[in-house]
Design a protein that fits this description.
four-stranded mixed sheet; 419 residues; mainly alpha; 6 strands
């Protein structure tokens, strides 16, 4: 069959129009909002929102093509070519349709991030391509056993559910078999975990191999053996993996500004690094002037050295977050006893202390900010700021000490501070 005739008669062409339109019109907002400007790995992670829809399209189109062969009784007429030689020319355009849909999603993410995908993360796209192959071949097998009008809708629903639903389950490992958590990749401080690439490659490779053997009628046990072996091996790889399939980025990529104190180390994709370092030093000076122990080095590296403090987590540091980030470096971490006993009576003090430290750094009364400073914390902080500086410090030290353990409640009333 001529290529032009094959493409014209395939259901993949029509399905691609709908898939591309769906990505551009309905998924583009989700894709662009998760892409990190200037960071290549996030491009492929953002494109993963398209996986369930592309897999559903491939499964439905593959089932349609399989049902066409069944309805035409092609294999019942003793064809001169083998079963794979007959089926694959019909299925390759279907697979290409799914890959093209994923490329459209990557293009949307590229336009949002302003950079191309990172070469070190192209294995993620290989996972996407193999997922589309598995969905196409599995749909084809279903279409060969059911009527055409039943096979395509059923394959579409199955393709969507099997790739979309594992991401919502409490058990984390099933999502990693179908790249169901790739949308967590990647903030500027993280990269994809290699295990999260090899496991779905192995899993979908097993499905693809089993389907090819089943189409070729290579016996009953060979497809089953391939499927079971690949599934077992891939599950063993991800059984202990957490919900997010990412690892810490190499800290050697950090760019450190050593022109003043404190030293400020940020990821290179952070916009306006020089200005952020300058504002950080201004705020640090104000906190130090208030008698607070500001660390000598602030870094986004999770592996902290003596004298360093974590600053801004693994995401991009923004100017409006600097004061709050500095405040968090001065507060103690949640103690282990709180995690084991589920009891932490001093926790209500974290909000007011953060608001007070932020006000000292910015030299401005705290304003209520949703998700950061509550109206009650803002009002309490204004009362504390009205106290003499020594009583403010006493209020802070008392409540900070309470945060280090699990047996003491907060003393938030400013009237009793320092007395």
């Amino acid at each position: 069959m001529r290529v032009s005739t094959l493409l014209r008669s395939s259901s993949a062409g029509t399905m691609l129009v709908f898939l591309a339109g769906y990505v551009l019109l309905l998924l583009s907002e989700a894709i662009t909002s998760s892409a990190v400007p200037g960071y290549g790995p996030s491009v492929l992670g953002s494109a993963s929102y398209t996986i369930p829809f592309a897999a559903a399209a491939c499964a439905a189109s593959g089932a349609w093509e399989g049902a066409r062969l069944r309805r035409g009784n092609v294999f019942g007429q003793t064809p001169a070519r083998g079963r794979l030689a007959v089926a694959l020319p019909l299925l390759v355009p279907v697979w290409a349709m799914g890959v093209a849909g994923m490329l459209v999603a990557v293009g949307v993410a590229v336009s949002a991030a302003g950079t191309l995908p990172s070469l070190s993360h192209l294995g993620m796209f290989a996972v996407y391509a193999l997922l589309m192959a598995a969905a196409t071949l599995a749909g084809h097998l279903l279409g060969g056993r059911l009527p055409q009008l039943a096979a395509a809708p059923l394959a579409m629903v199955a393709g969507f559910c099997l790739t979309a639903f594992p991401g919502s389950w409490d058990t984390p490992w099933p999502r990693h078999l179908v790249a169901g958590a790739y949308d967590s990749c990647c903030s500027v401080g993280s990269v994809i975990d290699p295990v999260a690439v090899w496991a779905p490659l192995l899993f979908t490779g097993g499905i693809t191999t089993a389907c090819l053997l089943a189409i070729a009628r290579a016996g009953r046990w060979k497809p089953l053996a391939a499927l079971v072996a690949a599934s077992a091996a891939s599950v063993l790889l991800v059984i202990d993996m957490d919900y997010e399939p990412v690892a810490d980025r190499n800290p050697e990529a950090l760019v450190c500004d050593t022109a003043g104190v404190p030293e400020v180390c940020l990821w290179p994709e952070t916009p306006g690094r020089a200005r952020i370092a300058a504002i950080t030093r201004t705020y640090s000076g104000r906190l130090k002037g208030a008698g607070l122990p500001v660390p000598s080095s602030l870094t986004q590296n999770r592996d902290l050295k003596p004298g360093q403090a974590g600053f801004g987590g693994s995401g991009q540091v923004r100017e409006q977050d600097i004061a709050a980030n500095l405040a968090h470096t001065l507060l103690p971490r949640i103690p282990e006893c709180a995690r084991t006993s589920h009891r932490y009576p001093a926790f209500p003090a974290r909000g007011p202390l953060t608001a007070w430290l932020t006000a000292i750094a910015e030299q401005a009364p705290p304003a209520p900010v949703r998700g950061r400073v509550s109206p009650d914390d803002a009002r309490l902080t204004e009362k504390v700021l009205a106290l003499p500086s020594d009583r403010q410090r006493a209020w802070y030290e008392t409540n900070r000490a309470a945060l280090t353990g699990c047996d003491q409640g907060p003393a938030l009333n400013p009237e009793g501070a320092g007395r």
